[in-house]
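Repro case for the chain-ordering regression, as requested:
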Amino acid sequence: MGHLTAAPIDPAVLTARIESPAHGAIASFVGQVRNHHGGRAVGRLEYSAYGPMAEAECQRIVREAEAEWPVRVALEHRVGGLEIGDIAVAIAVSAPHRDEAFAACRFVIEAVKRRVPIWKKEHYLDGAVAWVDPTGSPLDEVPAS
Amino acid sequence: MGHLTAAPIDPAVLTARIESPAHGAIASFVGQVRNHHGGRAVGRLEYSAYGPMAEAECQRIVREAEAEWPVRVALEHRVGGLEIGDIAVAIAVSAPHRDEAFAACRFVIEAVKRRVPIWKKEHYLDGAVAWVDPTGSPLDEVPAS
Amino acid sequence: MPAPSTQIVNVRVLLFASYADRLGLESVRVALPLLATVGDALDHVRTLPGGDQIPPRPLCAVNLVHAGLETRLAEGDEIALLPPLAGG
Amino acid sequence: MPAPSTQIVNVRVLLFASYADRLGLESVRVALPLLATVGDALDHVRTLPGGDQIPPRPLCAVNLVHAGLETRLAEGDEIALLPPLAGG
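-- result from build under test --
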């Protein structure tokens, strides 16, 4: 397993895991904590997960990508508290050629966002806190007291 | 300038150059020397360039990407002798969102391949040497003596 | 007539993130009639205090796999009610 | 009648990679008539020993910018004949 981690993510470690002398192309994606969301200044955030399912779903996504394209895929998602600029998710994909590397990398990040049970609570600089709903506005906002 | 380098490329250095607290997405591409090409075992290779034009063209490509999308782009291409697994080209693109990061990253690698005057001489394990022509077969092959 | 115990499936429903906050709980044990579905478990949870804040068709999973409301439940199943995902 | 010097453009043609190997040289100075084009410079280079190995319509550049064969040349221009690119 090991797709979820509470420790900082190092993209170079992921890349090292999937490099191969037969693979000429590596496409990567890194998602980092932004300092704003929906026009509001974000101070920090927390990712929580349904751990066992999130691990299982990440593993299924990696296997699907590796079955669909001639690629090797590394995927890690951070959980717990993150600061601005911290890496939330990192994906590295190696392939013989770039078309496959890009296609698989894009597939993995889209699948992670659509399928992996992880939730994000944003702490805004104005003191408010909200669960983020990518399908709409922040949910269940707790206003600054 | 500085898009061409005779020294090993470190993707982490490129990423550090384009990171921004406002940018949540980083898409990267790395091209490495493969151990085969056209069914033949490659031992090492040499990249040569029309240096001043290659630098100018890389700079134009980066500027075009940064004009087309809200991105920051870092691009380096290695020249000189490379071994299997060495990085030949690295691109890192940061953007507020992943669509733009992927689109600009893809644009840059395609433009590099189509427009930057760099040539590759492959040294095969059987002793032969050839200039690579991506539009056809190896050119001007010098057979093993 | 079969024994009553065979007429019931005991399942656990897990709640996460905003749903857990709304109900003030992370897990509920539910006993449902034989042939009950994920939708039946959901209906039960929505009768709990705060449960009306869960939408009628949330994302659901059974035993760590995404599942539709029509999915038939078996004894010991772990059902999860998943708020809108926000990973990545 | 203008002085003869105004009737001529002096340019430099650079050769790279396989083209440089074929002709055994990396750079040629060429004097061409006024209004000459990249194509005219190319035609001259193709008359040199080994020059027939350069294709009739190679990739070309003038002063570090990709240029077509019809591009008009000016005094001091640097023309480059570029074999198929293989960077990236």
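Ordering looks correct now. The beta strands of chain C are 8-15, 27-33, 59-62, 65-66, 78-82.
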